[in-house]
Structure formats: C-alpha cells, structure tokens
Amino acid sequence: MKNKTMRRIIKMIKPHIKSIVIITILAIIINIGEIIKPYIVKIIIDDYLSFGIFEKGAITIATLGWIYISIVIVGNIIDYIATTATNMLGEKVIYSLRNKLFIFTQKANITFHDKTSSGKLFVRITNDVEDVATLFKDVVSTFMKDVVLIVAIIIIMCVLSIKLSIVSFIVLPFVIFSAYVITKILNKVYDFSKNIRTQVNTFLAETIYGLKLIKIFNRQKEKQLECERLTKDFLNSRKPTGILEGLLPALLEIFKNLGISIIVWATVNAWFGIELQIGLVYMFITYLESLFDPITRIVENMEVVQESVVSINKIYDILEQTECIENLDDGIDMNTTKGKIEFRNVWFSYDNENWVLKNVSFTINPGESIALVGKTGSRKNYNN
To answer: If you count Cβ atoms within 10 Å of the first and of the last residue's Cβ in the chain, which end, N or C, has fewer?
Structure first.
C-alpha cells in the first residue's frame, strides 16, 4: 500500500480510534472464550471420560459444563455489544465523510465544477462513502481480533504438543501462498472494476438529471445503447472477480480438511512418537478449524479492503484539492452603482485552455436587458 494512501487511512481512522480500541478489546475477550471452550472439552474427554470418572477432586463434569455454558452466554452478549458498536462506527464514518464532501462541493470554485461532473460527485458522496463505511464495519474492528486469535491458537497448540503442531501447520504455507497470489490478482481486478462502476453511476446520475432534455431532443435510443454498453463493460469487469472470489474459499476449505486428515493420520500412526489422545486430537482439530476461520475472513475481506482503498483515494483526491477552494475573505464588497457596463475584448476560461469567452465586446446601457444564449439553448439574463 502506498504511503500516501496509508496517511489518508490513518487520517480517517484517527477521530474514531477510541471506538476501534473498545471494539477490539471486546473482540479479544470473545476470542479468549473461543479458545477456552475446546480446552474444557479436551479435559472432560481425557481426564474424566477416558477413566470412567465424573468427578475429580472438587470439580465435576457438571461444573465444567456450567463453565462452558457461561462462556457461551457471556460471549454472545459481548458479541452483540461489539456488533452494535461496529455498526454505529460505520454510520459515524458515513456521516463525517458525506458532510465533508458536501461542504467541499459548496466551497469549491467554478473551475472545479467545470472540470468535475455532477454525476462523479454524486458517486463519491454515495457509493464511495458506503464502501469506506463497510471497511470500518467488516474489517477495521475485526482485523485485530483475527490476528490475536491466530497468534493465540498457534501458541497454545505449540505449548500442548509441538510435534502435533508441526504436523498441523504443514498446510499453512500453501494457504498463505494461494491467498497472496489470488489477492494480488484481485487487487488489479478491483481497481479496474471500480473505475467502470464509477462510469456507470456517473452516466446514470447525469442521464436521470437531464431526462427532460433527452426527451426534448429525442435521444432516448442513443442513451439506451450507451447504458447497455457501460453495464456490459461492468459485467465483464466483474466476471474475473467472481471466479477468483469463489476459488479462494474453495482452496481454503480443501486445505482445512487436508490438515484435519493429516492430524488424524499422524495420531493413528504415531508419527514422531505422537500419542493418541482423543481429547487432544479433538482440540487440535477444533483449533485448526478455528485457525482457518479468521484466515478465511481476512482473505475474504481483501475485496472490501481493496474496494475501500480505491474509494478512499478517490474521496481524498477531491478533499485535498485546496487550490479549488474559493477564498471568500479576499472578496470585494460592491456598493450600489449606477451607469453602463462595457465588455471590451474580453477573453475568459476556467482552465486557461477551453475558452468560454473569445474576444467579446458589448455594452449594456442603464435600463437595458440582455440574454446570453449558449449552444445548448440555456440562457442567462442580465438587467441593468
């Protein structure tokens, strides 16, 4: 990720850092419960059921069962709170960005609006802002949770059995390599598809705004053909995305089941002197599945990340155009004046290239009204 993009993301996250930290802490607490649950089942199997006993000291199977149920209930409550807080965070991001963009469009000078279509601004304020909010809802608040879960599971597995851990992690290099290659390709596909989507949304917004003119000049057929062309281009740009997005989860599922099979095979055949303990095998299989869940989630969220990064850059490409902001403080207060107005050999353009006025000369005497009519038939009246 480019340094410029990273600075923009940090700038956007900074006002919400407190909420993100709280959500992350709640997510970590949930992870602790998810890690403890398989260990409780392992103890019940290996320390109780394997010896045909239901009580060991002061702790019974029923006690462990109540602990398990309590962890499930508390975990679900915390998960509900974290999910609600995450959704609220996303809505705050939408509120903040949309207001900033709208304020910018009001303060931007005529040159900016002459070069930037209203349809493109509409897409930035609606679709792109929604994409960024999705980044907060689905990725920012869960990324640390998933990373912590992955690290914690790996550490616990290694502590319990380093030999069985090595066997379990055989498939991980293939998972990482597959995810890296596919997401690398997806990155380029997302960028291209995003640009096509912007064109489609811009066309639709501008066409709907100008529908009366389209009907007046009987341009419906041409606009329909243009719409079909753009939507077809967008469809074709999304096809590779659909194929790659379906391929990656399928590969991860294959690797996960392959890893489970290797664990079972290693314990049954006593590879490297590994002892067959049913509870331990159950726990390693559960942990391996739990390990793949955050990996799968991170990989699947790459689509959200890539689309959001493109949207963030497009939004801040507008917000950071300081040269387009009008300096209202430098304006000149005009007193009421009387007299004629004369334009003499006036040239004018917004960008010093596409001239709006070319060597224009005219005089407006007191009491006269004039109309300036352009090629489109629109007019501006002036009364003096």
So the answer is: N
365-370-375-379 Cα dihedral, nearest 10 degrees: 140
DSSP 23-92: HHHHHHHHHHHHHHHHHHHHHIIIIIGGGT-SEETTEEHHHHHHHHHHHHHHHHHHHHHHHHHHHHHHHH
CB-based contacts of 377, cutoff 8 Å, min separation 6: none
Burial class (CB in 10 A: 0-12, 13-18, 19+), 15: exposed
Q: Enumerate the β-bridge partners of residue 108.
A: 325
How confident is residue 383, by pLDDT bands cut at 50, 70 and 90? Answer: very low
What value does the mean pLDDT take over residues 228-248? 83
pLDDT band at 375 (very low <50, low <70, confident <90, very high): low
Domain 3-324 belongs to what architecture?
A: Up-down Bundle (1.20)
Handedness of CA 9, 15, 21, 23 (dihedral sign): negative
pLDDT at 157 over 60: yes
Average pLDDT over residues 248-265: 81
Q: What is the rounded distance in angstroms from the CA atom of residue 195 to the CA atom of residue 200?
A: 9
Question: What are the extents of the domains in the chain?
Answer: 3-324, 334-383
What is the per-residue pLDDT across 311-338, written as a single tens digit (0 to 9) for each? 888 888 888 887 776 666 666 676 766 7
